[in-house]
């Protein structure tokens, strides 16, 4: 009975802190879930659960920092921002795991950045800076959804994709890029798509056709390369 009474008095005296802790962790869960849902929707390597865990974990770090500060600041010199700083620098290992190199293309950079941003949202929520955490979540979500769609519409009006089936040779990508650029066409992106047959690779060039170079002239120039087997536009 004595133990129960002591526990009851302890939790009642700490009730405000624990209520604040629960609310901060729940808010971090919701805000991280908003960003994670968007990443899950577009089938990114780090989705809903990963973003929630990162955000809630970051919030818990800041709640713990605050707890340590109030509990031990009268006895030792405590910096409440130290643990949060370690989250910001340490989240890089998780972001690096979402970056995937496929052939000559790199994917996952946006997801890595969103994980880092979500950790910062969690830090803000964990320290009780709700307005900053909410505003940052809205901005991040708009960047991932609205700006992506707007950017896609803007680039699709001037861009075209050229698929080139060629033999796998050292320096082949650089040679084909040089042929395309000599005709005044700007290369926006180069991807290795697949290898249908042994000794052959399929390259996808995303081109800026604002220079108004005739596509027929471009295809003819690429086909003149001795290792190119097939070229088509999409």
Automatic annotation (TrEMBL):
Record key words, sorted: Cell membrane, Membrane, Transmembrane, Transmembrane helix
Keyword Thylakoid listed: no
InterPro entries from the UniProt entry: MgtC/SapB/SrpB/YhiD_fam, MgtC_SapB_SrpB_YhiD_N
Subcellular location field: Cell membrane
The keyword Amino-acid biosynthesis is annotated on this UniProt entry: no
Taxonomic superkingdom: Bacteria
The MgtC/SapB/SrpB/YhiD N-terminal domain, residue ranges: 25-151
Membrane topology: Multi-pass membrane protein
Spans traversing the lipid bilayer: 17-38, 50-70, 115-147
Cellular compartments per GO CC: plasma membrane
Similarity comment text for this entry: Belongs to the MgtC/SapB family.
Name assigned to this protein: Putative Mg(2+) transport ATPase
The organism of origin for this protein: Ruminiclostridium hungatei (Clostridium hungatei)
């Amino acid at each position: 009975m004595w133990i129960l009474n002591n526990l009851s008095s302890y939790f009642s005296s700490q009730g405000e802190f624990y209520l604040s802790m629960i609310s901060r962790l729940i808010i971090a869960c919701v805000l991280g879930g908003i960003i994670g849902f968007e990443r899950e929707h577009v089938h990114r390597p780090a989705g809903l659960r990963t973003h929630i865990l990162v955000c809630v974990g970051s919030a818990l770090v800041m709640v713990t920092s605050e707890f340590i500060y109030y509990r031990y600041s009268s006895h030792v010199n405590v910096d409440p921002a130290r643990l949060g700083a370690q989250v910001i620098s340490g989240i890089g290992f998780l972001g690096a795991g979402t970056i995937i190199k496929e052939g000559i293309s790199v994917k996952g950079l946006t997801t890595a950045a969103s994980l880092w941003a979500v950790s910062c949202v969690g830090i803000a929520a964990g320290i009780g800076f709700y307005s900053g955490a909410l505003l940052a979540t809205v901005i991040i979500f708009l960047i991932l959804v609205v700006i992506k769609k707007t950017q896609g519409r803007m680039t699709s009006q001037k861009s075209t994709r050229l698929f080139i089936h060629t033999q796998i040779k050292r320096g082949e990508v650089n040679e084909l890029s040089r042929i395309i650029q000599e005709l005044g066409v700007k290369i926006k992106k180069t991807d290795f798509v697949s290898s249908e047959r042994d000794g052959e690779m399929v390259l996808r060039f995303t081109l800026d056709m604002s220079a108004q170079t005739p596509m027929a002239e471009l295809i003819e120039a690429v086909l003149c390369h001795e290792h190119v087997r097939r070229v088509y536009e999409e």
